[in-house]
Input
Amino acid sequence: MRKFFLRAFEKEQGLEEAARDLSTGRHRDDVLEDAIRALEQDPAEDTVGYGGYPNVLGVMELDASFMDGNSRNCGAVAGVTNFLPVSVAHRLMQQQLHTLLVGEGAEAFAYECGFKPEPTLSNAQRELWERTIKPLLDARGERSLMDIVRTIPSPKKRNLDTTVMIAGDGNGLSGAASTSGWPYKHPGRLGDAPIIGAGLYVDSRYGGACCTYTGEMATRAGTARFIVVQMKAGKSVHGAVEAAIEDLSHLRGGHLRELVIHAADREGTAYVAAVNVQEPVFYQYWNEDLKQPEQRTADAVSLSFTR
Output
């Protein structure tokens, strides 16, 4: 089993350190936490952590998950307002208390574990919400929040991304994900990132997979675990992702939009497919044969849904 990592996002924060730490024998879980937290703390990153978009009411709700591929222990937190979430998800996995905590329960767990509250909504994002979304709420009359969420235009392209990462340290695989979720989402909305088997799944015997963009699709299809099961059945990582895309084509109704699938087998062979995404999608990859992490471009895949 080789040392490697695969991370969504073209940003490079924390990746040279991740490659160095894996090379020198640091445990993959600690490497994952640091590399994802580097993005959570970035105020310029508008889909993860501190720089992310709040929900439609202007409240930050952050989600994260963590999974160990040797034991398949996992931990996920969702709807977190006062903590950057990946470290809390990692601790939940370590404690083996539950697999998913949400809202006030997740925050109570974080306090009990000694985490200190920290800022989760940047001034820039708060001001943007006040300019663009608060007027819609003030003038809504009898309109429901659901109606407002449905009619809010996307703030910009590529605003449904998540940071996801799979890493191998020579002794096993682990994976993690973190997101602020859909921009101006309905309060309480969870995507696929905190749902083990949907947005993240790793099994050191075979490989791992994770998803970004439209989480509702991956949740409905259980896409991450589907890919790992396909590898268990003997498919290559490329073939497993292709099988997952064919499975997605049979979804009907709901949000049928873009989905980016990241997958790697147990030896670090990686494949990333950007389904129905109009612009290039980049990701970062490293293994022990490379001097430094490489930015790569996902394969663009066009998908027509069965009607």
Q: What stands out?
A: The mean pLDDT is 94. The chain is about 30% helix and 25% strand.
